[in-house]
């Protein structure tokens, strides 16, 4: 996969040289290109922002530097087009399902903004040529979109074939589509079996795969109910067995809450 990032702070992306993503880059699985937006600003101060039309606080990023920068990136391969991703608090939520969708793309172009964002004509211009997604990593505001790009590149990059040592890890993630979809992952443990008076749950030492699977699902239901109760409403009621329904009842969460009726 090729990933391009246009930013006024390309140095922000040094973390992409380390850990799993760094190894993926070394092995050629992930091809990351960083671009300094100011290279396409032609005044002496390399200005990329100006006051907003209509008034209001803050500054807006100018369309000219962005247009020239994006055109230059697109010219790198005239035979295809990247999917452009614009990090913004007003975008659609970034989810595991969307990360999996992006992982299937051959080319992604991220355009993290600063100030009050990018002149909206830029998205209108390129939305007529290629897919442009405005995406939010959460209901909060950051100083800039670079950290959101780091989040998304890591979430997407670890899903690429050959990046994780154990491909099963991605399948078992919280929010991964499948039997546990919309359930948070439960607690995890490793050696030693006892640490500072805290013992690993006996079932995990039993070697009984059926009991272990049941325990993990129960813990996933409990953690989801405690931390993200709204996710239970998105569960398919048909995916709940009798044991699930009994557990939800014990948690004062009737099984029909999973259908959105409760």
From TrEMBL:
Residues 1-232 form the tRNA methyltransferase TRMD/TRM10-type domain. GO terms for biological process: tRNA N1-guanine methylation. It is found in: Cytoplasm. It is an enzyme of class 2 (transferase). GO terms for molecular function: tRNA (guanine(37)-N1)-methyltransferase activity. Homodimer. This is tRNA (guanine-N(1)-)-methyltransferase. It comes from Streptosporangium carneum. The gene is trmD.
């Amino acid at each position: 996969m090729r990933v391009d990032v246009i930013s006024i702070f390309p140095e922000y992306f040094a973390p992409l040289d380390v850990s799993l993503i760094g190894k993926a880059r070394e092995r050629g699985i992930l091809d990351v290109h960083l671009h300094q937006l100011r290279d396409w600003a032609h005044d002496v101060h390399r200005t990329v922002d100006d006051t907003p039309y209509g008034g209001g606080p803050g500054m807006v990023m100018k369309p000219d530097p962005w247009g020239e920068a994006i055109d230059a990136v697109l010219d790198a391969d005239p035979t295809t087009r990247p999917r452009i991703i614009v990090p913004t608090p007003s975008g659609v939520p970034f989810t595991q399902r969307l990360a999996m969708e992006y992982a299937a793309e051959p080319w992604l172009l991220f355009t993290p903004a600063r100030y009050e964002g990018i002149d909206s004509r830029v998205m209108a211009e390129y939305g007529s040529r290629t897919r442009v997604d405005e995406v939010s990593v959460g209901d909060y505001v950051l100083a800039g979109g670079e950290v959101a790009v780091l989040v998304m590149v890591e979430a997407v990059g670890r899903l690429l074939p050959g990046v994780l040592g154990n491909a099963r890890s991605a399948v078992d993630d919280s929010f991964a589509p499948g039997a546990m979809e919309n359930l948070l992952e439960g607690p995890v443990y490793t050696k030693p079996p006892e640490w500072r008076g805290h013992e690993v749950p006996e079932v995990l030492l039993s070697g009984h795969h059926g009991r272990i699977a049941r325990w993990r699902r129960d813990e996933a239901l409990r953690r989801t109910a405690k931390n993200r109760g709204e996710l239970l409403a998105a569960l398919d009621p048909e995916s709940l067995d009798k044991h699930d329904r009994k557990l939800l009842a014990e948690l004062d969460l009737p099984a029909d809450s999973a259908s959105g009726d409760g």
